Amino acid sequence: MKKHFYLLMFLLVCATLGYAQQSKIDSLHLALKNANHDTTKCDIYLTWGEQIYYEFPDSAVSLWQKAQALAEKNISHDKTKKYPYLIRLANALSDIGTVYHHQGKISSALECLYKSLKVCEELNQKAAISITLNNIGAIYFDQEDFQKALDCYEKSLKINIELNDKRWVGNLLNNIASI
Fold first, then answer.
1. Which of 11, 140, 144, 165 counts the most CB atoms within 10 A of its CB?
2. Surface-to-core class of residue 80, CB atoms within 10 Å of its CB (0-12 exposed, 13-18 middle, 19+ buried)
3. Given CA atoms 131, 135, 136, 140 in this order, what sign does their dihedral have?
């Protein structure tokens, strides 16, 4: 009897989570349909991709590529409103690079992450630079290119010491110790 109760509770929780996920996606779809500004559309594509990334990584990449294309279009058309699109471009590239890394598409992952890093550096977004360097270092670590991994981790560590971000300092020291 207890087994049936626990099984029923488990199924109920799973159904509720599935419904909540679908509800968020439906809300994003509606918001996209009603969005008037490209920054809003980029944000929706980025958020939608994050919602489905674990179950549907290829679909998430497709959404992030839409955000990337929209950001790049606006950057090239209106240089005065470049900043908000650069932030969204860096996020899209970073997200795409992360998926490519998990899919084993190493050269594509590095290409996206280095592009994201360049944008983050242009914006002087130190926290984003640090995270991107860490992600690049993780790829090199997985490829057993330990010197490049160490270089990335040390650069990221230096930034986080400067930012006084103790959590990231600890994470990076752990990454360095893994080498």
1. 140
2. exposed
3. positive
Task: Report which residue type is found at 80.
Answer: T
Answer for the pair 51, 29: CB distance below 8 angstroms, yes or no: no
Residue 57 burial (CB < 10 Å; 0-12/13-18/19+)?
middle
Domain co-membership, 120 together with 162: no
User: Digits of tens for pLDDT over the chain (179 positions)?
Assistant: 444 443 334 433 444 444 445 566 666 556 557 668 889 999 999 999 999 999 999 999 999 999 999 999 999 877 677 999 999 999 999 999 999 999 999 999 999 999 999 999 999 999 999 999 999 999 999 999 999 999 999 999 999 999 999 999 999 999 999 99
88 and 130 both lie in a single domain: no
- Rounded to whole angstroms, what are the CA distances from 154 to 115, 148, 179? 20, 10, 12
Spatial separation of the C-alpha atoms in residues 90 and 62, rounded to whole Å: 16
